[in-house]
Design a protein that fits this description.
Elements lengths: L18 E3 L2 E8 L4 E7 L4 E6 L4 E8 L1 E6 L2 E6 L3 E4 L4 E5 L6 E8 L4 H8 L5 H10 L3 E2 L5
Antiparallel strand pairs: 1-2, 2-3, 3-10, 4-9, 4-11, 5-8, 5-10, 6-7, 6-9
Length: 146
């Protein structure tokens, strides 16, 4: 799939798709073989547990709010305007420990099958099943830090 010329308007998504993944909202805004970008909304208390992408770089531009991060064993904080860089193989977890929503633009390169993973995870409420399905898409969740 090749990149398409055009504009994804603010607040919109490709084909009006909205995914609910463990209480977070994901909206795909760009998809090609080379990369996949998606807008996210993390309500207070939601998170992506520590995991790794062995064949993708991942980037996160925090748009509103802040994230507490676990990056290769270090605890860090990213706030609105910051860019989080997660090279291939880095171990990372992303948490909204605040009392406000956090909005961010995520993207990965190359796209691999992350889009297909999100299609499968939409509305799934069982974290163990999320972990199992993610491993089928080469996203590997890690034991809790510490």
């Amino acid at each position: 799939m090749a990149a398409e010329t055009g504009i994804t308007r603010y607040g919109e998504s490709l084909d009006d798709i909205v995914w609910d993944i463990l209480g977070q909202t994901y909206k795909p805004v760009q998809l090609s073989e080379a990369s996949f970008a998606f807008d996210t909304l993390f309500p207070p208390g939601t998170f992506v547990p520590p995991h790794m992408h062995p064949d993708q770089d991942e980037f996160v531009r925090v748009l509103e709010g802040d994230f507490d991060l676990w990056l290769d064993g270090a605890d860090l904080k990213a706030t609105a305007g910051d860019l989080i860089r997660l090279p291939t193989g880095s171990r990372h977890g992303i948490f909204n420990h605040s009392s406000a929503n956090t909005r961010a633009l995520f993207w990965v390169a190359p796209s691999r099958t992350l889009y297909d993973l999100f299609v499968r995870l939409d509305g799934l409420g069982d974290p163990a099943e999320v972990v199992r399905i993610a491993s089928e898409h080469n996203i590997h969740f890690l034991p809790p830090p510490g």
